[in-house]
Amino acid sequence: MVFSRLAYQTLANIVGQDYVSDDPAVTQAYTKNFWFESIPKERQHRPAAIILPESVEEVQAIIRTANRYEFPFIPVGTNLWTTCIPAGPGYVLIDPKRMDKLIEIDEKNMYATVECYVTYAQLQAEANKKGLTLGIPSAMAQVSVLANHLFCGITAINHWTGYAQKNILAVETVLPDGEILEIGSRGLPNAGNFWGEGPGPDLRGLLRGLWGHMGGMGMV
């Protein structure tokens, strides 16, 4: 699939010229994640472009643009896993580096609301200020809290807290058609983020363990 200049300009109109790039020096850098060298040479593809949204609304607009111009895209976290590497030419990588806000730490109920690029190091530093802590995964503290929770979330304190993916409460995610899905108590107006089991069917299983295949970026 060809990634056109018209599609590129449409993306630039969404996030601004400074936050989208097809410069080979930039796109090549995104091929060098932890697992890249384990992939056969014939399957090592450089992204057509990199785009950095700042909000869920921009992510929605990017995904709708991808559907309109029919180019493939990959929403990445901290770009660690093999699924962050394009499976062919013409892919656009959606990098959430600018979506790094720690929205809330609820000390009483011991949960945090974070955007998708908040790292374990960032969250741990703020939690420690409140006398709280969290498990750091084997992928280390520089990885995305949201991405690692959705993947599995194996830490040294799983015997106490359970797997991190079981501790996901309310989630806001952007679906492949650009629509927003709110899971858990976020599905009720003004209910907050405290409850994962309702209302209605528990859809968190659609996101767990799938490395982002079923949704884009949001908050948890």
Question: What can you tell me about this protein's structure?
Answer:
The protein is of the alpha/beta class and 220 residues long. The protein has two domains: 90 residues, Uridine Diphospho-n-acetylenolpyruvylglucosamine Reductase, domain 2; 106 residues, Uridine Diphospho-n-acetylenolpyruvylglucosamine Reductase, domain 3 (2-Layer Sandwich). A hairpin with a 4-residue loop joins strand 5 and strand 6. The longest helix is centred in the first third of the chain and has 14 residues. The model has no long low-confidence stretch (mean pLDDT 84).
Structural features:
220 residues; alpha/beta; Uridine Diphospho-n-acetylenolpyruvylglucosamine Reductase, domain 2; Uridine Diphospho-n-acetylenolpyruvylglucosamine Reductase, domain 3; 2 domains; two-stranded antiparallel sheet; 6 helices; globular
Please give the structural blueprint.
Layout: H1 5-15, E1 20-21, H2 24-29, E2 49-51, H3 56-69, E3 73-75, E4 92-94, E5 102-106, E6 111-114, H4 120-129, H5 145-151, H6 158-161, E7 171-174, E8 180-183
Parallel strand pairs: 2-4, 3-4
Antiparallel strand pairs: 1-2, 5-6, 7-8
Helix pairs in contact: 1-3
